[in-house]
């Protein structure tokens, strides 16, 4: 069996594990820096949705909560709504580690379909996590949605 692509991103945020956890799981806060609301009760086995904030209520990503250990670790499956992709859904792991007055947030996105999906994940996570970091450290997200910035 061939190993499928994965992507990992690490950022350091002046915050607490509790605030980072809240920022990842609160629908209103995720809407502020992600452009989507992450909606779930965040219990292991529960469904979650990445819902548009345009009022349509549509979810662009859905999955299950695989592991929930607030405020240190959250693991979810990640797939488009509808049929399960060949090879199963991808998995996203958020690792939250405190160190003094900062947090190391490690996001690992595994079981990606191919290199194109890995490249898309790399660009998407860099933009979203930069916006999350800015929001937690300044109280406001970036003035422009970074995922809309043209690549050079």
Automatic annotation (TrEMBL):
Short name of one Pfam family: AHSA1
Task: Specify the domain of life of the species encoding this protein.
Answer: Bacteria
Where in the numbering of this chain does the Activator of Hsp90 ATPase homologue 1/2-like C-terminal domain appear?
Answer: 16-137
Which family, according to UniProt?
Answer: Belongs to the AHA1 family.
The protein, known as: SRPBCC domain-containing protein
Q: What is the lineage of its organism?
A: Bacteria, Bacillati, Actinomycetota, Actinomycetes, Kitasatosporales
């Amino acid at each position: 069996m061939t190993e499928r692509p994965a992507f990992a991103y690490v950022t350091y945020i002046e915050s607490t594990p509790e605030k980072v956890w809240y920022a990842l799981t609160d629908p209103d806060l995720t809407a502020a820096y992600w452009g989507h609301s992450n909606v779930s009760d965040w219990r292991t086995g529960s469904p979650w949705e990445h819902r548009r904030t345009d009022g349509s209520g549509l979810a662009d990503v859905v999955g299950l909560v695989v592991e929930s250990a607030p405020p240190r670790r959250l693991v979810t499956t990640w797939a488009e709504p509808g049929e399960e992709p060949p090879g199963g859904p991808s998995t996203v792991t958020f690792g939250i580690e405190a160190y003094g007055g900062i947090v190391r947030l490690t996001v690992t996105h595994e079981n990606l379909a191919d290199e194109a999906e890995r490249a898309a994940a790399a660009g998407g996570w860099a933009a979203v996590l930069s916006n999350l970091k800015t929001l937690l450290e300044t109280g406001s997200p970036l003035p422009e949605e970074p995922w809309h910035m043209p690549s050079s």
